[in-house]
Design goal:
By secondary structure, the protein is α/β, with parallel strands linked by helices. The protein has 2 domains: 136 residues; 150 residues, Rossmann fold (3-Layer(aba) Sandwich). 33% of the residues lie in helices and 13% in strands. Helix 2 links the parallel strand 1 and strand 2. The protein is globular and about 60 Å long. One of its GO terms (molecular function) is galactoside 2-alpha-L-fucosyltransferase activity. It comes from Herbaspirillum aquaticum. This is Alpha-1,2-fucosyltransferase.
């Protein structure tokens, strides 16, 4: 299997980009799943307005928790010119003085709440999006284009190609267990928590009942040793160990290739399931995404997914 060919025609507004400074910009920060939500919301808004789209990834220069990871995709990652960015990092005194007389033409729109904000869909040209935008409602009208943008450019490695072939010939189900900072970081654990083993037992049993076939599980996790010691399910399981943080896009591609999906309360496995656009695919998501009732995750999980 070869990598995905990424075709991009000339943007009809590219010549007006430099002259009129009309564009949409999304600030990217966080893990890969978060970056994808931020890109998708901005990209869809730009398509809706018919103007160019650019990203602002400058925050990663001082961000140690996660690396910028979008370069693995077919997405056009044009960086917005520094002179357009509101309050750019490392701005000197002269630049700050000039900004008083030559303010950024971009208007910052900051996420007000975790739930879907319908106003975002009709924001004007020249908007700078600053938030997480974790709902498909921000880009559902351009779902096909977003899936094309998030196709992985590179051909899979030999081990991942073997996984893809096995996934293709089995009744494959991706199953994601997120631990990492959800366990080791007290603040993250207090907000997110982890899905208990009972959730996974109910999820795969539901898939078996609905499809009438025993699932073959392809398990992805940032703590596969813990999974091997604790996850006991009455189905064939494969622990996918060939990728790490630098090649997490390979795991994302493998997840998407599976026929059905059991996601964790994680934006990463959310995307692994969402990128599978097949209408017959079933996705199981946890009924509770966060430990508490806030943030309100009602718009995060698509209505067509099953919540257990």
């Amino acid at each position: 299997m070869v990598g995905t060919a990424c075709f991009r025609g000339a943007h009809p507004h590219r010549t007006t980009y430099a002259r009129n400074l009309v564009m949409i910009v999304s600030r990217l920060i966080g893990g890969l799943g978060n970056q994808m939500f931020q890109y998708a919301a901005g990209r869809a808004l730009a398509l809706r307005r018919g103007v160019p789209f650019a990203i602002d990834s400058r925050a990663f220069a001082d961000y140690k928790t996660h690396a910028f990871g979008m370069q693995c995709f077919c997405a056009d990652l044009t960086e917005a010119p520094a002179r357009l960015i509101p309050n750019p990092p490392a701005e000197g005194r002269l630049q700050r003085l000039l900004r008083r007389f030559l303010p950024s033409p971009l208007r910052v729109y900051t996420e007000k709440t975790f739930t879907f904000d319908n106003a975002v869909l009709s924001l004007p040209d020249g908007t700078y999006l600053d938030g997480y935008w974790q709902s498909e409602k921000y880009f559902a009208d351009f779902a096909d284009q977003i899936r094309k943008d998030f196709a992985v450019k590179a051909a899979p490695s030999a081990p991942n190609q073997a996984w893809l072939e096995l996934i293709d010939r089995t009744h494959s189900v991706s199953l994601h267990i997120r631990r990492g900072d959800y366990v080791s970081n007290a603040a993250a654990a207090a907000v997110h928590g982890t899905c208990d083993l009972g959730y996974y037992e109910r999820a795969v049993a539901h898939l078996h009942q609905v499809t009438g076939q025993a699932p073959e599980l392809f398990v992805f996790s940032d703590d596969l040793d813990w999974v091997a010691a604790n996850l006991q399910l009455p189905y064939k399981m494969h622990l996918v160990r060939d990728n790490d943080a630098s090649t997490n896009f390979e795991d994302l591609r493998l997840m998407t290739a599976c026929r059905h999906h059991v996601v964790a309360n994680s934006s990463f496995s959310w995307w692994g399931a969402w990128l599978d656009g097949r209408s017959e695919s079933i996705t199981i998501a946890p009924a509770r995404w966060f430990v508490a009732d806030t943030p309100d995750a009602r718009d995060l999980v698509p209505q067509r997914w099953v919540r257990l």
